[in-house]
Amino acid sequence: MSVTKEDGGKLNAFAREPRMEVIETGTGRSRSTTVLLLAGLALVLVMVAVAAGIS
Predict the structure, then answer these.
(1) Residues 6+ apart with CB under 8 A from 4
(2) Residue 55 pLDDT more than 70?
(3) What is the rounded CA–CA span in Å between residue 19 and residue 42?
(4) Are 1 and 16 in contact (CB under 8 A)?
(5) Residue 3 contacts by C-beta under 8 Å, 6 or more apart in sequence?
(6) Alpha-carbon distances, residue 6 vs 11, 13, 17, 25, 31 (angstroms)
């Protein structure tokens, strides 16, 4: 942390910021992410169908 001293004698401590990462374009979703998204969509559709069937 970097610390500075103000005019009144108070100390200011500034946190160290994390390094920035550059994400390259063209990197698509991985297969596991796509499967997880599709499974979540299927689960939501099943829950909606069950709720519609109950009501």
Answers:
(1) 11, 12, 14
(2) yes
(3) 38
(4) yes
(5) 11, 12, 13, 14
(6) 6, 11, 21, 44, 53
Segment 17-47, tens digit of pLDDT? 889 988 777 667 788 889 999 999 999 999 9
pLDDT of residue 45: 97
Residue 31 tokens, joined: 């297969």
The contacts of residue 16 (CB under 8 Å, 6+ apart) are 1, 2
| Distance (Å) of CA 7 to CA 4, 10, 11, 26 | 10, 7, 9, 50
Please give the model's pTM, rounded to 2 decimal places: 0.49
Dig out the tokens for 25 from the structure.
């374009």
Phi, psi of 12 (to 5 degrees): -115, 125
